[in-house]
Amino acid sequence: MQEIEKYFPDLTEAQQLQFKKLKDLYKDWNLKINVVSRKDIDEIYLRHVLHSLGIAKVQSFKPGSSILDVGTGGGFPGIPLAILFPETNFHLVDSIGKKIKVVNEVAEGLELQNVKTSNCRVEEIDEQYDFIVSRAVAQMETFVRWVKGKIKKKSEHELKNGILYLKGGDLSEELAKYQTAKIYELSDYFDEEFFDTKKVVHLPMKYKG
Ligand SMILES: C[S@@+](CC[C@H](N)C(=O)[O-])C[C@H]1O[C@@H](n2cnc3c(N)ncnc32)[C@H](O)[C@@H]1O
Questions:
Q1: Which domain holds residue 127?
Q2: How does DSSP classify residue 2?
């Protein structure tokens, strides 16, 4: 929990409480439905919460904006971002029902009013968002194909509307055909060794394109 306060010192009391509660909720639910590896539960603030919040260091989401989290699994990066941006609308989607069950339980336990979930493949979603976030779901080419047509026309943030993807390692081959992709190193924001190879990729996407 100190990891979060260290990098996000302006949390309200309500947000601090939600982040605190999050670990116990995942601990309990993980015993029934495994969504986070056992080893990772002890390091949930570093490996899951802070990692998810790396997206917030690259772009703060405005009140009223809407964000789609594709392949959210147990709720990452969507749940930590929904705590940090309580006035932004988050839609968390996963094709596996039991994962969405855990996400619903955690969102309810944290009394998050800004989280909606869907148990389906993202290709079935027909809505538009300011940004589409994700971690560990698909190669960029496949991902771009899935989310085409799901980006709002008007950009209202510093970064252009599009994808904000948490990725790691050498991305030169994967991103070679995306000239407009920009890579943000999470080690520029967070000191922990875990972030040495972690990045946020921003890929602006055209409306309907
Ligand atoms: C490796 S997990 C990552 C979960 C989470 N994003 C995280 O980083 O902890 C990948 C998830 O993507 C989901 N997924 C894969 N393809 C999908 C699709 N086309 N639509 C919705 N969910 C998908 C899987 O069901 C799985 O839960």
A1: 2-204
A2: H
Rounded-to-integer distance, Cα 58 and Cα 67, Å: 14
Distance between Cα 119 and ligand 1 center (Å): 11
Assign residue 37 a region (left: φ > 0; alpha: ψ between -120 and 50; beta: otherwise). Answer: beta
Measured in residues, the chain has a length of 209
What atom in ligand 1 is closest to the CA of residue 72?
6
Residue 13 CA to ligand 1 center (angstroms) comes to 31
The CATH number of the domain holding residue 9 is 3.40.50.150
Return the amino acid letter for 168. G
Asked if 163 and 147 count as a contact pair (C-beta separation under 8 A), the reply is yes
pLDDT single digits (tens) 124-181: 999 999 999 999 999 999 999 999 999 999 999 999 999 999 999 999 999 999 999 9
